[in-house]
Structure formats: C-alpha cells, structure tokens
Design brief:
about 0% strand, about 210 residues, 11 helices, Homeodomain-like_sf, transcription, elongated, Arc Repressor Mutant, subunit A, 2 domains
Length: about 210
C-alpha cells in the first residue's frame, strides 16, 4: 500500500530537511541575484507538490531556515552560560559561543545564506532578524545583570552593554563571512572580552603583580 509523506513523519522530515539543505547550498551561489525554486527542488530531489506540502512559498522557506538557525544559536548560548561558574564567566562563554560560528565551516557557510541580497528582499526577514537579535541579546543582558549582583561585573549596564557587545560580535561575524577577517578565533575573543568585560577589582587584585 502506497503511503503518502503526510502519513509518514520520518519521510516528511527527510523531505523537509532535504529542501532546507538544498536552499542553503544554492541561495547566493555564484553571485546570482535570485535562485529559481526549480533549482532548489532539483537539489532536494522533490517536486512542487512536495515542496508546497512543507512550505507555502519560497519566502516562507527562507524564514523557516532563519528561525531554525536562530533557535539553534539560542539554545547553544543558553547552554554555554548555564555551565559557567559566575556571571562574568557566563558573559565570556556567550561571546565565545557566538563568535565560534565564524570559525565553524558549516555554520559559517549556512550563515552566509542569510547575508545574500536575495534573502534581504524576503518579506518579513528584517523584522524576524530584529526579534532574533533581541532574543540573543536578552540572554547576555540577564547574565550581565547577574554580574552586578554577584560582584563579578560590578560596573555592568546590562541592556546597553549587551547591545554593544552583540553589535561588535555580529560585525566580526559579518567580516569573517565576507573574508575580511583573518585573525585567529582566540585573538578576536580576547579583543572583545578585554574591551567589554574587565575583571572585578577583587579579581584584578588577585591576578595583578604586587606593588
């Protein structure tokens, strides 16, 4: 008996993932201004009927790709800060985790999809990106607020500092994706940490050279 994908969750999910993988491979390839839907269908090995079973439009596909990628980043940021010993260490972990995207080949390749002019024209993409950025910044702002409480970041201004740190990290990621940043990952992390997360006076006194 023939089973439709709608009745076979595993098959439906394979189809869906194949479409998303093909879109990541093809969007923006060779500098094209637009990627025909037919190219994505061929790349995924599906037909139009299958595509529309999963996504109402190509724009909806792109928005889904962005939302799922952002959720993965969000979860990794939360896990990183949860494992840290104190708030300052958690803020450092947040910076390390987000910056690591630029030095991970697969994550960086997928991220470049969302920097293409074609994706920039998708209706709703800008608002969705602002929501994503706000969620990621919110994780950092909570950590910075905790740092004021536990004394590891006594001078923190959570909302403003989170905005500034996030902006710098995202800019570094954009530069890296465009081939404009050839510095080692550890050096870039150190650069951001030194500028935004000075140790508390007590910690500085413990690590400083006696007078």
């Amino acid at each position: 008996m023939l089973r439709l994908a709608a009745d076979d969750p595993d098959r439906a999910e394979r189809e869906r993932r194949a479409i998303i993988r093909a879109a990541h491979r093809l969007i923006g390839r060779e500098g094209r201004a637009a990627t025909p839907l037919e190219d994505i269908l061929r790349g995924a090995g599906v037909n139009r009927r299958t595509f529309y079973r999963h996504f109402p439009s190509k724009d909806a596909l792109v928005l889904t790709m962005q939302r799922e990628a952002a959720a993965g980043v969000r979860d990794s940021l939360r896990a990183a800060v949860r494992e840290a010993g104190d708030a300052r260490a958690a803020a450092v972990a947040w910076i390390e985790e987000l910056l690591a995207i630029g030095w991970d080949e697969r994550a960086s390749r997928d991220g470049r999809t969302f920097m293409t002019p074609e994706v920039g024209l998708v209706v709703g993409i800008a608002d969705a990106l602002e929501d994503i950025y706000a969620e990621h910044r919110g994780i950092l702002a909570e950590v910075l607020a905790a740092g004021r409480t536990d004394g590891s970041l006594p001078a923190a201004q959570p909302e403003w500092d989170a905005l500034a740190i996030h902006a710098v990290v995202v800019r570094y990621l954009e530069m890296r994706a465009r081939g404009r940043l050839d510095r080692p990952y550890a050096a870039v992390v150190d650069d951001v940490v030194r500028r935004f997360l000075p140790p508390s006076p007590e910690a500085a006194g413990l690590t400083g050279t006696p007078g």
